[in-house]
Amino acid sequence: xxxxxxxxWRTEDEAAMHRIFEAFEKKNPDIKVNIQFTPDADYQNRxxxxxxxxxxxxxxxxxxxxxxxxxxEGGYLDALDDSVAELKNMPDAALGGARGRxxxxxxxxPYSVPMMGVFYNEDI
Length: 124
What we know:
With 124 residues, this protein is α/β, with parallel strands linked by helices. The protein has two domains: 1-61, D-Maltodextrin-Binding Protein, domain 2, CATH 3.40.190.10; 64-112, no CATH class. It is 33% helix and 13% strand. It contains four helices and three strands; from the N terminus they run βαβαβαα. It has helices at 14-27, 40-52, 64-73, 92-95; strands spanning 2-8, 31-37, 59-60. The mean pLDDT is 90.
């Protein structure tokens, strides 16, 4: 059996994430997921401290544009280009925030993509 540790700051998603990983573990009984939540205000400090000390999680949720690059530059993240072939099927626009600035490699899997638009009432 293997245990994978995942850290997240999204405490509001805790119940849903537990359901998702319970279903995952049923389909993959040899893999256990240890998911830990830290409030957003404390998450960056906890993660940075753990990584510098060599005790970080196997998987960490990151905010792409602000937090990803320092972790890439620090050597804390592995590029996923060769190990997650399905990423080649994702639109490049969805992957922009998951790429290293210097090398263009993929270091993350987006779980959401913000969409902006303008709605207006033509009758006004």
